[in-house]
Design goal:
29% of the residues lie in helices and 24% in strands. By secondary structure, the protein is α+β, with helices and mostly antiparallel strands. It has four domains: 96 residues, Helix Hairpins, CATH 1.10.287; 134 residues, Heat shock protein DnaJ, cysteine-rich domain (Chaperone, DNAj Protein, Chain A, Ribbon); 72 residues, HSP40/DNAj peptide-binding domain, CATH 2.60.260; 40 residues, no CATH class. It starts with 5 loop residues before the first helix and ends with a helix.
Length: 378
């Protein structure tokens, strides 16, 4: 009896991707596995073996190319023709298809596992001016790097790691639990697939050493507190040839003596004398671009907020300049001389004689208090 086409068996087209082929086999394997079809009245075991044979050919790019060109003759002696269905054969194919579900799939065609290096975090403190303008900053980062003495192998110079006898160099061991075959990291070699019999004297067999690296970080203009800069590949070195992790530099902006920042806007407090607040005038107001003159109208009260457009900052997300909000703080004189106190008392009497004409807020407040006590006494 002629064999059925492998693509037809799995129900996929000849242009199907490797992932589509895997999904199709997974669906058929779950449906026709012998453990789920004890009586086998529908021929499930044969269908399972047929699907397994098709998948083992089509999952391999070389075998698939040979099959596409020569058909079944191109893959004779392959897994379907010689292996058949058995506990060991099923374990291999099942682990390959479903291993990723349990996080234990083999990598690199069954070789030892490779491990990506850990990501690292670094807190970079900046003053407001640097955060606003941007700069290149040098930082020292303690991290794990590949050992130069043994080139990351962990073995003493002149020797080599030996194959792990527990996992046979695979880096994983398989546990069969009924229907499921679960792959786990080898407890003996921790997934490396090799053991160090003669460890490197510098890294003591770990393949990595702790070292402080000096890096240059380009801080973009407009960064704010809590922003993160990612330096790809600058984290800890990987194991078994795995890629390095990343370094995340978190920005922390130091408190400023004058300004508070919120996004693109700045805020500050401006002390103003009683005379200037009363009579009006001009005060020097600092900005990050230099001093500007702020015109204070006569009768300005403490707490009055002036908005200076375009005197704020930009952010990394928006190039538009924010505003500066200046809050007036009328300053009470201290350490007065006798003459100054006498003049102030004379001035105060004169103001009080004018009543609400000179102190509208005080007069209104006293009226409010009077009405309040009248209401609660009723």
């Amino acid at each position: 009896m002629a064999k059925r086409d492998y693509y037809e068996i799995l129900g996929v087209s000849k242009s199907a991707s490797a992932e589509e082929i895997k999904k199709a086999y997974r669906r058929l394997a779950m449906k026709h596995h012998p453990d789920r079809n004890k009586d086998d009245s529908t021929g499930s075991e044969e269908r399972f073996k047929e699907a397994k044979e098709a998948y083992e050919v089509l999952k391999d790019s070389d075998k698939r190319a040979a099959y596409d060109q020569f058909g079944h003759d191109g893959v004779r002696g392959g897994p379907g023709g010689a292996g058949g269905f058995g506990a060991e054969g099923f374990g291999d194919i099942f682990g390959d298809v479903f291993g990723d579900i349990f996080g234990g799939g083999r990598r690199g065609g069954g070789g030892p596992q490779v491990f990506r290096g850990a990501d690292l975090g670094y807190e970079l403190r900046l003053d407001l001016e640097t955060a606003v303008s941007g700069d290149s900053v040098t930082i020292d980062v303690p991290t794990q790097v590949s050992c130069d003495t043994c080139s990351g192998s962990g073995a003493r110079k002149g020797s080599e790691p030996v194959k792990c006898t527990t996992c046979g160099g695979v880096g994983q061991v398989r546990m069969q639990q009924g229907f499921f075959s679960i792959q786990q990291t080898c407890p003996a070699c921790k997934g490396a697939g090799t053991m160090i019999s003669d460890p490197c004297e510098d890294c003591h067999g770990r393949g990595r050493v702790r070292k402080t690296r000096t890096l240059s970080v380009k801080v973009p203009a407009g960064v704010d507190d809590g922003d993160r800069i990612r330096l790809s590949g600058e984290g800890e070195a990987g194991r078994n040839g795995g890629p390095s992790g990343d370094l995340y530099v978190e920005i922390r902006v130091n408190p400023h003596k004058i300004f508070e920042r919120e996004g693109a806007n700045l805020a500050c407090e401006v002390p103003v004398s009683i005379a200037t607040a009363t009579l009006g005038g001009e005060v020097e107001l600092p900005t990050l671009d230099g001093n500007v003159s702020l015109k204070v109208p006569p009768g300005t009260q403490s707490g009055k907020v002036f908005r200076l457009r375009g005197k704020g900052v930009t952010t990394v997300r928006d190039a538009r300049q924010g505003d500066l909000f200046a809050t007036v703080a009328v300053e009470t004189p201290v350490n007065l001389t006798s003459e100054q106190k006498e003049l102030l008392e004379k001035f105060d009497r004169s103001v009080r004689e004018g009543g609400e004409q000179h102190s509208p807020r005080a007069g209104g407040w006293l009226d409010t208090v009077k009405r309040f006590f009248e209401r609660i006494s009723q």
